[in-house]
Task: structure prediction
Amino acid sequence: MKRIYMDHSATTPVDPLVVDAMLPYFSEMFGNSSSLHSFGMEAAEALARAREQVAEAIGASPEEIIFTSGGTESDNLAIRGVIPHDAGKKHIITSVIEHPAVLNTCAFLESMGHDITYVPVDADGIIDLQELKGSIRDDTVLISVMHANNEVGTIQPIEEIAKIAKENDIYFHTDAVQTVGKVPVNVDDLGVDMLSISSHKIHGPKGAGALYVRKGTVIEPIVFGGNHERGLRSGTENIPGIVGLGKAMSLASELLGTDAKHMQEMRDSLISRVFDALPDVRLNGHPTQRLPNNVNLSFKYVEGESMLMMLDMKGIAVSTGSACSSKSMNASHVLTSLKLEDDYIHGSLRISLGKENTMEDVDYVVESLKEIVLKLREMSPLSNS
Ligand code: PLP
Result:
């Protein structure tokens, strides 16, 4: 059976060039980068090279890169790191549609007595800048707003938020886990103080990531130990993973133009052909300010889970943002924040394209989706189509 993977916002296959770069660091070059002998030096050199690759891909300096275990840890370090442990009550501003790595970190800080403001978004998922400005307080230490949303693909006006943060002398962190390799990510152009990266979303290995921390940004560690990563992230470095992240970042920036164009052509074709084929469909997220690989559609009268399972039987892997996603029974907090009508909220599908997908894959997905939605609607008591 044909197998088509279109769930690249969840994770991506590791690029063979990344695998090749990593392999020697599992075997002959297995050293600990802190060791003083030649084995250690090989590992330290690999670490330094990967740091340069990551820095170069986002326009940063190598000293501004802290390696972590992935996007979740980078978000935790950025947010918990700026709240000094000995200071009084502090305030953080974020958005209602952040990834749980940000939302649950904020919820934890709230439980510890800090204040968090969750700024709403409009129907396309764009953050309300007036509300954001209005929520700034004298004790606001951080604004954390994601670069692009992982469910609906909306890209935020990061440069404008950065300006607001700067004018008010507040640190600004962005979760760029979904944007690296899909849109240009340059820390100076964006104007951010901190930026989270995850390797497995960009054809690198799982369990590796980085946090960019602009020179002069004062943060404290959340993991203590042997003072690796300038004391900000202790623990023997995951050298193969970090080498893979470095290679994946280089490839992502080298191929950005061609890969993003290819994904965007498939995205636009998929959207327009589904709209042509089926009534009662809506596109969730911003129509143009969206990731080139993100298609998030809601189909009236059908359940997302039913579509997902029937697509899976045809070998097509996508995800759903409605009930039961991530094994939870709640509707997606992102779709809820977009104030989607109830009729549409449970019938959503996120199709996230990747560089290895083809227009033939899109043909097969559109045909399969059409057949499945029509079949499900025939069975639905709510539908008269
Ligand atoms: N932030 C965003 C926007 C994500 O999409 C994800 C993963 O889905 C994460 C953070 C977490 O990254 P990781 O899986 O590397 O911990």
Residues 245 and 269 are 31 Å apart (CA to CA).
